[in-house]
Amino acid sequence: MSATASRPTDPGRATVPRAERFARPLLIAFLVAAAVDLAGLLAGLDAVHLVAKPLLMPLLAGYAFVRGGPRLLVAALLFGWGGDVFLLADNDLAFLLGMGSFAVGHVCYLTLFGRDRAPAALATGIAYVLVLAVFLVLIWSDLPAELRVPVAGYSLLLTAMAWRAGGLGRYAAAGGALFLLSDALIATGIAEWPRLPAPDFWVMLTYIAAQLLLALGVLGAARAGGRP
Q1: How far, in Å, CA of 128 to CA of 6, rounded?
Q2: Could you tell me the sign of the dihedral formed by the alpha carbons of 149, 155, 156, 158, in that order?
Q3: CA–CA separation, 190 and 192 (whole Å)
């Protein structure tokens, strides 16, 4: 009997390469869906956005899963999908439900980042807090009264996530910052501040890039031997 034949099969080692064969197709599908969604927003085709947007996070979560990503990363992306779906409806209740789903996703990210031993820079955290405080002061009176406290609480949680993401390297740090920017663009729209042309395009562009960079940052840290 050969040494190969006598060695017991390790199911875990056998299934990972098989699963990872789907990683590239899933990532390509995610990028295609993102391009279609962004093009639809630029063209003003709401039907395209309604179809493409709900595909984004499941595809990215599937990519993270087959790459062997942590369960909390997959959960964070799927709660992001829940937020995406709720925000397709244009009313206050859907907005609050979507914000709540995103908030749970941020808790998943924070828990995940808390397992990493690399500390986030204190100076970055102070800068984030100052920016958040100034932004809330400026926008507070323009927000609907019933949304002020939820938006403030959510913003604090998002800021903590963005700061803590910096401990995983440049990709995750950039992802956290872009997530903040994307949600700030949403908040300025709710407050009816002047907005950029095609505002939904910029919201989705920064959001898609944020989630992708966060996922890549977590997966890179895991592959490098870190413990996110």
Answers
A1: 58
A2: positive
A3: 5
For residues 163 and 128, the answer to whether their CB atoms sit within 8 Å is yes
Task: Evaluate whether 172 touches 165 at the Cβ level (below 8 Å).
Answer: yes
- For 66-75, the pLDDT digits (tens) are 999 999 999 9
* pLDDT tens per residue across span 113-138: 986 556 668 888 899 999 999 999 99
The amino acid occupying position 179 is F
Cβ contact 67:23 at 8 Å: yes
Residue 47, classified by CB atoms within 10 Å of its CB into exposed (0-12), middle (13-18) or buried (19+), is exposed
